[in-house]
Write a sequence for this structure.
């Protein structure tokens, strides 16, 4: 990847200081913030399914609720975070608040035991994530040239995912050294979260997102989020999101089938994130060339294959193939969706537009987790995965048709010079 060591000038959407083929240094700094934060969050995520089901003793339906909470509660504040960054013109400090809240929740995991207390801590963590994500992605979109957005988000997600690879490895090492030592995992996780906040506060430039006259007002927010350009992408994001089974569920399916032992459970997350790390930049560049909507839909084809392998491939082979397919899925969808949406709204509404897409995905995945947990209880794990695979296979052609013209719209009618009226 090519990285400019100079930041952009003070203009809200100027990219003159970023040479063609390069991305801004701000993108890399934000990637480092996400890297340290993901070391922290993935340490917790890697042990959470076993911690909740084996240590705390939650049943599979209760775990489905908690997994849905982990996926979906951030939706409550995503649009608020995006709008706060757009309206105040200082998205960095909205992101700082979100990262700080998540960091505090890591330490709060130490004393909690009951379901109510754990729910409160997970809610705080996810609210922090919801608050920070859209302002951070808006900073990335503002720092990178329009035709390099896929690459810029790919670079950020690659650094982010490097932390996601290291986090489960650290959790695995800590649990190997101290069996059942979940407290050690939570303590080290907190330390990495604090480092991430420090990098954001000290090194990421505090750039205003737009001149005061162009900042987003409530009426403009409503027009942008309900406009024709966003309708189909948001519909597709929701349709595919509600058919996305959480990683933890798929990994528990593999464990139920004796494809992986409990001691190696965190390594499934490592494998997924390692593949994501390798593919994030290449697939981001591919999305810039062939169309971000096309790559987004293709990523869900990889997810469909992952379902089929998890449900039907015997032995340890599934433990290698499923994480690899999930890594490809995330590389083709996560940053690509943000890059796609960022070009469908005005710069003064960029954070809010990205937040709207993320909110739809988060709510859809919350519904998916709760529904899949119930389906598991009724039909069993393998049958539940097969049902989701069948539904996704039906939804994919519909999604492809809905977004077939979206890429042309975003390229043919760029919005960087548009302001949203009050």
């Amino acid at each position: 990847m090519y990285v400019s060591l100079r930041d952009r000038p003070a203009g809200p959407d100027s990219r003159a200081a970023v040479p063609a083929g390069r991305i801004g240094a701000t993108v890399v700094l934000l990637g480092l913030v996400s890297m340290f934060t993901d070391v922290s969050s993935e340490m917790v995520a890697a042990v959470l399914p076993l911690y909740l089901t084996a240590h705390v003793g939650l049943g599979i339906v209760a775990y489905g609720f908690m997994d849905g909470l982990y996926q979906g509660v951030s939706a409550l504040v995503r649009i608020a975070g995006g709008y706060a960054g757009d309206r105040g013109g200082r998205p960095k400090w909205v992101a700082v608040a979100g990262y700080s809240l998540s960091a505090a929740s890591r330490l709060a995991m130490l004393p909690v035991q009951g379901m109510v207390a754990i729910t409160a801590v997970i809610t705080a963590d996810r609210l922090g994530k919801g608050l920070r994500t859209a302002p951070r992605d808006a900073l990335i979109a503002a720092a990178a040239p329009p035709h390099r957005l896929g690459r810029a988000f790919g670079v950020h997600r690659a650094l982010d995912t490097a932390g996601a690879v290291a986090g489960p490895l650290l959790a695995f090492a800590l649990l190997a050294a101290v069996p059942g030592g979940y407290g050690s995992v939570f303590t080290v996780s907190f330390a990495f979260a604090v480092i991430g906040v420090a990098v954001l506060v000290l090194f990421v430039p505090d750039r205003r997102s737009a001149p005061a006259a162009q900042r987003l007002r409530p009426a403009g927010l409503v027009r942008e989020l309900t406009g024709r350009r966003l309708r189909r992408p948001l519909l597709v994001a929701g349709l595919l999101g509600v058919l996305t089974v959480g990683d933890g569920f798929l990994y528990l399916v593999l464990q139920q089938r004796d494809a992986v032992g409990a001691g190696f459970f965190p390594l499934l997350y490592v494998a997924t994130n390692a593949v994501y790390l390798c593919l994030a930049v290449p697939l981001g560049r591919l999305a810039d060339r062939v169309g971000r909507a096309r790559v987004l839909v293709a990523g869900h084809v990889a997810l469909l294959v992952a379902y089929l392998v998890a449900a039907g491939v015997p032995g340890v082979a599934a433990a290698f193939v499923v994480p690899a397919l999930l890594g490809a899925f995330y590389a083709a969808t996560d940053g690509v969706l943000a890059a796609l949406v960022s070009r469908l709204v005005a710069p003064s509404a960029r954070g809010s537009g990205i937040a709207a897409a993320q909110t739809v995905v988060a709510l859809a995945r919350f519904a998916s987790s709760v529904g899949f947990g119930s389906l598991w209880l009724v039909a069993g794990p393998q049958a539940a995965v097969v049902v989701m695979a069948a539904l996704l296979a039906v939804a994919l052609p519909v999604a492809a048709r809905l977004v077939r013209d979206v890429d042309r719209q975003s390229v043919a009618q760029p919005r960087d010079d548009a302001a949203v009226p009050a």
